[in-house]
């Protein structure tokens, strides 16, 4: 048995507690805390393991939002206790200034990784509880915040007229460093689509296959509208009754959870945010673009203090079922294949990977499997400086040569790597960089490739 202290410090006249340790059939009366009006405490001897509990505060069922909580099978929110053997000491203890510290009183929340002395079965159960608790917390935060809460005080939104030539469009994207730009349809007075780095890759591939709009071979005259129509016809057989679907978008009043789900389910990088109250046809109802990095950054910046109580964030990524790992590297693989390229392969090999796998970046390794750098979709814009007519030179470039050109054109690059020992919190901090969407997991000494962890991976485990 382990002696634990249960505390209610949030004010009340009467307080009691019940839990799974009594099969929810009995309430223990809590005692007033001396010199702290409205606070109550109770000491209990509990068996080793996992326990859920909740309070009865002045006749109302409550849980402490400042402590770990999970949802049970019936949707009831309960606080969480994790009790371990006296000789099983965790690496890190959650600091609670109101907790009485002694050798015989154990805290119920562990913020660090479980010690190796904890049995494997108990450590696995502990991790599952950490995941469940984190999902409950993150889901609540995202549901209670809207896109409007995330809108910057002042910002600019770049839009392309659908009649702009694709060549000009991509050159502007390169010059402004924009991976995606909304397309404005002046006839319907709305956003009719998005021009992305993937469109640029599609065009380069079609040029190589001599399939691009034969009646309009002069790319200076090929408009964005022409390209989108061609792309639509390529994806839909002749005679198909399929119609172009409206652009996926969000309203400024949508919850951040709804926006995350839209982005993840549709496998897109960002979505435009509309102001539905804008009824004037002469005004542009688009407010901003919402993306996963921006949402993650917003939550990280606004919720730093509450996020400190999320024990899952302190776990090494190698212990969490997250990311895509090479076989035998120690991670908990999701069954997918890690896509990477060797330094001497042609840069055009990256085209098919980007388009088929729908990923944003590819690790480039040397002959020993050690990481050289990461090649991203937007690097192709940089590689040709946004000029689709420069596609011919790409046939002659290796991945190593392509990276050298990217360095020459764009200068310093952000950090794209992490380690097996990196915590989920450290990974989230790196992925909050609006440029970085995937991190390459490498050995800290040899830099050999171990796996990939993406922004979507993080949000999938948290949601």
Automatic annotation (TrEMBL):
Pfam families: AMPK1_CBM, CBS
SUPFAM superfamilies from the UniProt entry: CBS-domain pair (SSF54631), E set domains (SSF81296)
Entry protein name: Sucrose nonfermenting 4-like protein isoform X1
Domain of life of the organism encoding this protein: Eukaryota
This protein's UniProt keywords: CBS domain, Repeat
Annotated GO CC locations: chloroplast
Keyword Repeat: yes
Span of domain CBS: 150-212, 243-306, 332-394, 411-463
Naturally occurring in which organism (per UniProt): Dioscorea cayennensis subsp. rotundata
Keyword Repeat: yes
PROSITE patterns in the record: CBS
């Amino acid at each position: 048995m382990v002696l634990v202290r249960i505390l209610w410090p949030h004010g009340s006249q009467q307080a009691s507690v019940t839990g799974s340790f009594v099969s929810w059939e009995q309430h223990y009366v809590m005692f007033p805390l001396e010199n702290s009006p409205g606070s109550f405490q109770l000491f209990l001897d509990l068996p080793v393991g996992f326990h859920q509990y909740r309070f009865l505060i002045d006749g109302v069922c409550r849980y402490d939002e400042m402590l770990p909580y999970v949802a049970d099978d019936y949707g009831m929110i309960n606080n969480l206790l994790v009790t371990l053997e006296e000789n099983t000491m965790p690496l890190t203890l959650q600091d609670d200034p109101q907790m009485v510290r002694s050798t015989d009183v154990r805290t119920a929340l562990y913020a660090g990784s479980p010690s190796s002395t904890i049995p494997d079965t108990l450590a696995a159960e502990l991790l599952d509880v950490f995941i469940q608790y984190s999902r409950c917390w993150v889901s609540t935060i995202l549901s209670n915040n809207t896109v409007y809460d995330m809108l910057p005080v002042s910002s600019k939104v770049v839009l392309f007229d659908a009649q702009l030539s694709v060549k000009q469009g991509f050159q502007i994207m390169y010059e402004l460093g924009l991976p995606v730009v909304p397309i404005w349809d002046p006839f319907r007075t709305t956003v009719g689509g998005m021009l992305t780095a993937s469109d640029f890759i599609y065009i380069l591939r079609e040029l190589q296959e001599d399939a691009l709009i034969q009646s309009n071979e002069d790319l200076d005259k090929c408009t964005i509208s022409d390209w989108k129509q061609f792309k639509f016809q390529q994806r839909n057989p002749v005679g198909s009754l399929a119609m172009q679907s409206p652009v996926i978008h969000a309203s400024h009043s949508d919850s951040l959870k709804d926006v995350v789900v839209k982005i993840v389910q549709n496998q897109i990088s960002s979505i435009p945010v509309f102001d539905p109250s804008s009824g004037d046809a002469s005004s542009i109802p688009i407010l901003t673009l919402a993306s996963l990095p921006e949402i993650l950054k917003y939550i990280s910046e606004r919720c730093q203090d509450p996020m400190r109580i999320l024990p899952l964030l302190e776990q090494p990524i190698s212990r969490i079922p997250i990311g895509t790992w090479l076989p035998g590297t120690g991670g908990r693989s999701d069954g997918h294949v890690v896509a990477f390229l060797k330094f001497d392969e042609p840069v055009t090999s990256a085209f098919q990977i980007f388009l088929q796998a729908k990923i944003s970046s590819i690790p480039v390794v040397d002959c020993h499997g050690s990481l050289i750098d990461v090649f991203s979709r937007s690097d192709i814009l940089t590689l040709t400086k946004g000029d689709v007519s420069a596609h011919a030179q790409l046939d002659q470039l290796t991945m190593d040569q392509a990276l050298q050109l990217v360095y020459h054109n764009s200068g310093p690059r952000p950090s794209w790597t992490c380690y097996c020992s990196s915590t989920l919190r450290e990974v989230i901090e790196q992925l909050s960089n609006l440029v970085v969407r995937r991190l390459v997991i490498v050995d800290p000494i040899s830099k050999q490739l171990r796996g990939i962890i993406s922004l979507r991976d993080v949000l999938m485990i948290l949601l």
